[in-house]
């Protein structure tokens, strides 16, 4: 029996006892043996040795919540308006849009994405008139980095049938100036319509191109299981075409939107979904918006305002959808940014459980950014888990402290320490492409709570490096019922591994600077940063 034995550096198994074995042996796509080197060699007498040279072996990372392949859609098909692409002021944004218009046929859409006004000198969105000045022969749509709002020029609004007589839809708004004229600003998925959908203007060829690019990005970050966490029917059709072609090189969990059930599973795509690397997972609900746009639904108003945000679903609809999915046996992932949104969902789960108890449903609150401690206790009582969004601490923590929530409430955004203290199992995520898929940077932020401006936001909510690593590996597998097949280095599990240049447990203050050296998926090396020099360090 051939295979590969990994040894020669720290090995963090992430098993229940957090054991630190001397060696891990794999054969085919599975882990065969874990323990002392002599025992692993006995199990795999003909295996080659993969010397870690002091580097650290861990299970590959699992994306608990994201929107694969959105990052590649932004970089390859849109005008990238993110700060990381160099947008520092509105003139930068408008110039990028103009450049995109210059290479786009008249009448075709120009889309910008990754826009974040909090990082611009003007600290505001562009207006309809400013976008009209860029082009009046292209519909232009600028999607905010949160994915919950945007700005359209006049031609884009006309294409979508939005005019001065358009009434605000439930859960959305068309913004107007003091005279009542539309500014081009649109908030909420119901108002954005097709312009808010990932699949907007995507065809088979462009989707395949973006899929491959996103796959390579994720593998380079040590991620072998990703999510698309808002999969409407047209996007499901695109993913199915990829799935039917065979192994796409990365494992995926798709979260169909709640409204297409039970039809999807009874007589639609879900009934005959191909078995393989791309699978259907929990069903997705959405209750509120984003903090940047003050549309996350709060019990107490935003700092210096009387604004509480707004629910995207009314209470009766949320209860009905939760009851439906729970009764059908699905796991539910529900976007709840504000604590008022979390209250609504927890009430809905309690009602569904009263009607039809399920002992291990693992319904999940996504983001839970300002959850109160009493809500976390209630999650534990109801069997609800949470996927937190600590990347907000780095990217927008200063804004939370200064202008969004204020210094007191901002201390406890993404309250991972409270969850740990209450014995609640949770995960952490980047929500790509809202923030980039960078697991080690995310773990660093969760451990250190450092903002972009350098403040420590909520030191009492910090957790250990080991707890943060578990939240992105074995706990992430558990959260989607995959703990028996992945997430830890144990015999019988998939041989999905990541090799890090250093041990995160040994350098907690600089975890984010650690490099991914290698990624192995299903027993095969799928990413290598570069060849190791003479001393063995990659």
Would you write up a description of this structure?
With 538 residues, this protein is of the alpha/beta class. It has 3 domains: 4-60 and 491-528, Roll (Urease, subunit C, domain 1); 83-144 and 149-187; 204-479, TIM Barrel. It is 31% helix and 20% strand. Helix 2 crosses helix 7 (204-220) and helix 10 packs across helix 11 (339-355).
What is the strand arrangement across the widest sheet? 7-8-9-10-12-11
* CATH level 1 class label of the largest domain: Alpha Beta
The domain tally reads 3
- CATH architecture grouping of the largest domain: Alpha-Beta Barrel
Helical region count? 18
Tell me roughly what share of residues is in helical segments: 25-40%
Taking the sheet with the most strands, its summary is: 6 strands, mixed
The oligomerization state is single chain
The CA-CA distance between the termini, in Å, is 29 Å
The total of beta strands comes to 23
Radius of gyration based on Cα positions: 23 Å
Strand residue content: 15-25%
State the fourth-level CATH superfamily of the largest domain.
Metal-dependent hydrolases
CATH topology of the largest domain: TIM Barrel
Name the overall outline. globular
Average pLDDT score? 95
SS-derived structural category = alpha/beta
Low-confidence stretches: 533-538
């Amino acid at each position: 029996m051939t295979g590969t034995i990994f040894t020669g550096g720290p090995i963090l198994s992430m098993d229940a006892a957090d054991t630190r074995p001397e060696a891990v042996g794999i054969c085919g796509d599975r882990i065969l043996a874990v323990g002392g080197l002599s025992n692993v060699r006995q199990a795999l007498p003909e295996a080659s040795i993969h010397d870690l040279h002091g580097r650290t072996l861990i299970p590959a990372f699992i994306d608990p919540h994201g929107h694969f392949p959105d990052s590649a859609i932004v970089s390859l098909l849109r005008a990238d308006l993110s700060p990381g692409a160099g947008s520092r002021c509105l003139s930068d944004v408008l110039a990028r849009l103009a450049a995109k218009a210059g290479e786009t046929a008249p009448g075709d859409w120009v889309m910008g994405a990754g826009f974040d006004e909090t990082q611009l000198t003007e600290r505001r969105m562009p207006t309809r008139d400013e976008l009209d000045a860029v082009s009046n022969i292209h519909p232009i749509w600028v999607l905010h980095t949160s994915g919950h709002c945007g700005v359209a020029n006049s031609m884009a609004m006309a294409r979508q049938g939005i005019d001065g007589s358009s009434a605000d839809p439930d859960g959305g708004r068309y913004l107007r100036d003091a005279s009542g004229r539309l500014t081009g600003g649109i908030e909420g998925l119901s108002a954005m319509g097709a312009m808010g959908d990932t699949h907007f203007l995507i065809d088979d060829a462009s989707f395949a191109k973006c899929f491959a690019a996103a796959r390579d990005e994720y593998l380079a970050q040590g991620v072998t299981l990703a999510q698309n966490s808002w999969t409407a029917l047209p996007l499901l059709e695109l993913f199915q075409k990829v799935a039917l072609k065979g192994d796409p090189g990365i494992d995926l969990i798709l979260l169909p939107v709640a409204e297409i059930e039970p039809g999807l599973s009874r007589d639609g795509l879900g009934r005959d979904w191909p078995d393989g690397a791309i699978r259907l997972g929990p069903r997705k609900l959405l209750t509120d918006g984003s903090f940047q746009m003050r549309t996350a639904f709060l019990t107490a108003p935003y700092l210096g305002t009387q604004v509480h945000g707004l629910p995207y679903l009314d209470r009766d609809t949320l209860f009905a959808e939760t009851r439906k999915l729970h009764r059908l046996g699905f796991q539910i992932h529900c976007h709840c940014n504000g604590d008022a949104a979390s209250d609504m969902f927890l009430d809905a789960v309690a009602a569904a459980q009263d009607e039809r108890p399920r002992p291990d449903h693992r319904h999940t609150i996504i983001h839970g950014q300002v959850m109160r401690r009493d809500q976390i206790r209630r999650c534990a009582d109801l069997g609800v888990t949470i996927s937190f969004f600590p990347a907000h601490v780095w990217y927008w923590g200063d804004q939370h402290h200064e202008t969004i929530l204020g210094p007191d409430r901002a201390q406890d955004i993404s309250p991972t320490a409270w969850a740990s203290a209450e014995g609640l199992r949770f995960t952490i995520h980047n929500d790509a492409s809202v923030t980039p898929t960078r697991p080690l940077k995310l773990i660093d932020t969760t451990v250190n709570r450092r903002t972009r401006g350098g403040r420590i936001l909520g030191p009492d909510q910090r957790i250990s490096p080991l707890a943060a690593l578990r939240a992105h590996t074995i706990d992430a597998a558990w959260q989607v019922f995959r703990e028996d097949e992945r997430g830890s280095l144990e015999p019988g599990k998939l041989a999905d591994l990541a090799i890090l240049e250093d041990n995160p447990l040994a350098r907690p203050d600089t975890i984010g600077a650690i490099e991914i050296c290698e990624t192995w998926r299903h027993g095969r090396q799928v990413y290598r940063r570069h060849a190791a020099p003479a001393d063995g360090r990659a």
